[in-house]
Amino acid sequence: MQKVTFRIVPHSIRRDIQVVEVLLDGAVCATITPGDDASIRLMSAHIENSSTDKGLPSGITFDSKRGSSLPIPILTVRFRPRPYRIEGGEIVPEPVQ
Questions:
Q1: Whole-prediction pTM
Q2: Is 58 helix (H, G, I), strand (E, B) or coil?
Q3: Partners of 12 in the beta sheet?
């Protein structure tokens, strides 16, 4: 089973903010950064898919399995790390060998 861990580091360009690196078996596969207007952004070229429920914005689900009486918005994303290149403004996965 693959292991997901987190590391807080300075932003590579804006040193005045911190980002959370999401690591899969020790390799960075995503970052979580502050967004605009009280938001965050999850960024990754390795997103395989995300789960959604009807009537909710894309990528947002409500987790009812945590035992909370309040619905908790959760963004669920599955990663499939693989080599890639940027071509014509698109992420193009490389064949996995």
A1: 0.64
A2: coil
A3: none
40, 34 contact by CB (below 8 A): yes
Phi, psi of 76 (to 5 degrees): -105, 125
CB atoms within 10 A of CB 30: 20
Q: Count of residues for the chain? A: 97
**Per-residue pLDDT tens digits of the chain, which is 97 residues long:** 889 999 999 988 888 889 999 999 999 988 888 877 777 888 887 777 666 666 656 655 555 555 555 565 656 666 777 788 889 988 888 887 7
